[in-house]
Fold Diaminopimelate decarboxylase.
Amino acid sequence: PDFATHRNDIAGHPIKDLASKFGTPLYVYDIAVIQQRIADLAAFDVIRYAQKACSNIAILDRMRRKGVVVDAVSVGEIQRAIAAGYTPGGDSHEIVYTADIFDRAALDLVVEHGIAVNCGSPDMISQLGERRPGADVTLRINPGFGHGHSQKTNTGGQQSKHGIWHSQIDECLRRADQHGVTVTGLHMHIGSGTDLEHLSQVCEAMERVAGEVGRTIRSISAGGGLPVPYKSDETYVDLAKYFELWDATRNRLSEKFGHRVQLEIEPGRYLSAESGSLIAEVRSVKKVGDNLFVLLDAGFNDLARPVMYGAYHPISVCAAEGDAADREHVDAIIGGPLCESGDIFTQREGGFVDSRSLPICRVGDFVVIENAGAYGFVMASNYNSKCRPAEVMLEGGEAKLIRQRETFQDLIRGETIPE
Ligand code: LLP
């Protein structure tokens, strides 16, 4: 984003028009931004989108059309990928199931379609091997350390439940042998919102573990984790440097094994975060003691990242009348409609409420919460019996509805009152 605190349009679409046509709260995704992010990663052999970040089937379809394959962590994500036109099974590995367990339904579905599996526990190797003897698998390795933007998104080290512990490769290979399973790839994802500092350590660990597995390795995956700037003083990772380190690792392995090892990357946030905005309407502006609260029709049921991680999102104001650029700035706390004090978009990890200097708001103005395209809608809930918002994609100058706003009927679907 440009970190401006006022905005009248998103990719040329007036915010007022989007709000009046589709209602608020509303998620809007600019497809051009996603396409740019895909292009940024062209040096990698395979871009595998971690669809958990934003899994609307229209978004998945557009990823597919750009040659991006997908990661799936559940039955629902496998089915979404299929609904978006991805081919399950086969050698192209368009869908890979990556998890630390198989629930029974996931194991059934993976076996039924012959979907590729990235095993995050030794048990997964045995469970797949029993049902699909002779399978090829990749292993997700926990290298013994991790890093994320929050402790909750750090996925390495012994506090983390993720992956196969780096010193248990022998046991995994024994288990694989029992079922004729071949380990053809390795994967490491040490956390979401990670940094470059840990990268050389990850690459070293990858090389060492690949050496232990041996020549059956045909691909390595750098996992996800690429950060995007949420604050004006944050920066992107130097992608050229990131690729260079992984490429060098891959090249050494290719040489060692005598065949070209494929290099994958598995981003979620990097591809979708900056494409997405959450538009909400200001419904109350009130003083509480010394504080000024601006309350929106969107809450943590719509965007959970602030309450969950103390995550910071850029926020801008679109005035209903006139231009917010002409308004005086005031310190305001931006909150939602829910029955909890944590329903605040301007907070830090630990639940500390912050205020933000923004153009003074009036009821009826719009507020845009930016960089909300990753882990936004997908983490939305029906708490307080709120209907989840609509989703719209901006593409070729048009605003297209890709998910209807939920209705009361959606809320009570499946509920019954026994006699
Ligand atoms: N691969 C694996 C195995 C993952 O577990 C994840 C994210 C990714 C790739 C994609 O990571 P990314 O490129 O998006 O950083 N809800 C949190 C983030 C949770 C990430 C979970 N796993 C948030 O809102 O920050």
